[in-house]
Amino acid sequence: MTLQPSNRLSIFFSRLKLFFALSRTPHGVIDMATPAFAALVWLGHPPPVSVTLLGLLTTFAGYTAVYALNDIVDYRHDREKLQKEGVCVTPGDLDAVLVRHPMACGFLTLKQGVMWTAGWAMVAIVCACLLNPVCLWIFAAGCLLESMYCLLWRISHYRVLVSGAVKTLGAVAAVFAVDRSPSAAFIMFLFLCLFFWEIGGQNIPNDWTDIGPDTRFGAKTVPVRLGPRRSALLIVASILMALLLNAMVFRSALASYAAIYLLAALLAGVYLLLFPALRLWNRQSCQDAMVLFNRASYYPVALMTIVLIRILAQR
């Protein structure tokens, strides 16, 4: 029986959705705001159109490849967990809007996942070279650190530090894409701000939601090793550091920012990061950890929006 064109198209998009699920594309698209914010806050104006378009393609390809690489390296662990836990979708998880771990669930083969990842990695490599060779080395470092992070799952909870570093690299690469010699102080403040945002707003809360399965499978995560109370303390401390360092990011940028924009950034951080973190501190529930993770994911989007408003106001 010959499939109708409409049926073929439907099957194609269904399969494509699984590949995007492998790369956690809904979350990845939101994460693309992080390098966009970094480049814009440094310059204070949009880069040339050619650099912007090439940068967007590089960012999408890089995030798509690195997120998929996570599932490739974790493939055996994910299959082991899913065979015993039997859960492929986590309600409310931004990382699982489509399907969580489609390879481990059997919707995609490992070979298909590797080919998808390699294809997007090649796109990222070519585009990074065109932007600035430094971006290529940063992308390579990100892939290496992401693999290391996955391999440390049953070895050490200090892998959270590796995760913090990985999340900063896209933003750092974006700055070098628009300026070959940015301020070292700006790069340092940007790195540390995003480092603590990732630890307090993303990594530990996300691991908190998996504390039950991770405990049963002997994973070494911060919530498993330190327990709820100390994990919550670390989350709040990291978020406070991120908010403080974010002000330094604005202050050390090439462009100048009025106090109103720093205040707006602070209020965004308090609403998206600090309030849900304090709620998690008080309740110490998995649901509150998920709320923090989801809200914190939009923090770079809020910062990018603030910078865009400033750019528009200057015109």
Provide key terms for this protein.
315 residues, mainly alpha
Can you describe this structure?
By secondary structure, the chain is an all-alpha fold. It has one domain (19-313): UbiA prenyltransferase (Tetracycline Repressor, domain 2, Orthogonal Bundle). The chain is built from 14 helices and no strands. Helix 2 packs across helix 4, helix 4 runs antiparallel to helix 6 (110-131) and helix 12 runs antiparallel to helix 13. The longest helix has 30 residues, at 222-251. It starts with a helix and ends with a helix.
Topology overview:
Layout: H1 5-22, H2 25-31, H3 33-43, H4 49-73, H5 75-85, H6 110-131, H7 133-151, H8 159-178, H9 184-209, H10 211-216, H11 222-251, H12 259-283, H13 286-296, H14 299-313
Secondary-structure class:
mainly alpha
The CATH homologous superfamily is named UbiA prenyltransferase
**Could you tell me the radius of gyration in angstroms?**
20 Å
The stretches of 5 or more residues where confidence is low (pLDDT under 50) are none
Any guess at the CATH architecture?
Answer: Orthogonal Bundle
Percent range for helical residues?
over 70%
Helical stretch count?
14
CATH topology: Tetracycline Repressor, domain 2
Distance between the termini: 60 Å
Largest sheet: none
Strand percent estimate: under 5%
In short:
By secondary structure, the chain is mainly α. It has helices spanning 5-22, 25-31, 33-43, 49-73, 75-85, 110-131, 133-151, 159-178, 184-209, 211-216, 222-251, 259-283, 286-296, 299-313.
